[in-house]
User: Fold this.
Amino acid sequence: MKAVLFEQFNQRPSIVNVADPTPSNDGVVIKVQATGVCRSDWHGFVGHDADIELPHVPGHEFAGVVAAVGRDVKRFKVGDRVTVPFVAGCGSCPECHAGHQQVCDHQSQPGFTHWGSFAEYVAVHHADLNLVHLPESMDFVTAASLGCRFVTSYRAVIDQAKIQAGQWLAVHGCGGVGLSAVMIGAAAGANVIAVDVQDDKLALAKSLGAAVCINATKVPDVAGAIRELTKGGAHASLDALGASVTCVNSINSLKKRGKHVQVGLMLGDDSMPAIPMGRVIAGELEILGSHGMQAHRYPDMMAMIAAGKLEPSKLIGKTITLEQSIDALIGMENNKDVGVTVVVL
Assistant:
């Protein structure tokens, strides 16, 4: 099969021909139809993820058609249209038994723990637990955009922040994760404040339901502005970027007993932000993480999409080829594109 392969971290990948994957007894092989280009892929490419062994094929947000099935798989067959959460549970650990596959003790992640979806085929383990059937009404490009950013934001807003209609939700960073959170928060009835440094991203956030947009380059105290606007602070706030400044601004923008949800990965120089613990203690703030979403939580999200309450297709910025994905991957750190980029195979 054709795949994007890098042999050293932070060195330009190339398109190569490699052996097709084969399914494990409880797994499947998926013919990839579309795969997203995500900042997490860039983190892996530059060496921020200890799970990656070289040489490596990146890619973890994908959708496609089942091409081969292991002998123990019961719920899926060749030809099924599917997608998968970026975290695949083992089905045997205490977290999986409790329904928390997104924090499985022995999780696998295509594109990190094994070769990913910047390729014609990708293997998925424990298929009956982790695969999600796609409705015929959903195209592969939209489905691929769900796998990491959209579902992580859905869990962050709905399950972790537990946002309610009429509450204030601040979203710091309007890339794919942040824009997804804006849409989901607005659909839940929240008053969403979108924060970014690019006016074009804020314009898209406004069109997706943001009630207020703040350009952080034009406002010297973002957190103070949010507290003033909301008369005390947001009920919940997300750092959707993964930078020290957005993490701290998110926490400082909260009302007492508010919830900060960290969605953007904090790696490299941003791995140890200066958390304002005095404010956390005095205000009884909650600091939460959001790490993907379980396959069994997809039906509620899919129902909102089918009802037109969520329209993830509006987040698609552009589609590219597998060959073009190399430049998109290595340029992700300084990416200024608006919306989600998806590779179509």
About this structure: Residues 1 and 20 are 5 Å apart (CA to CA).
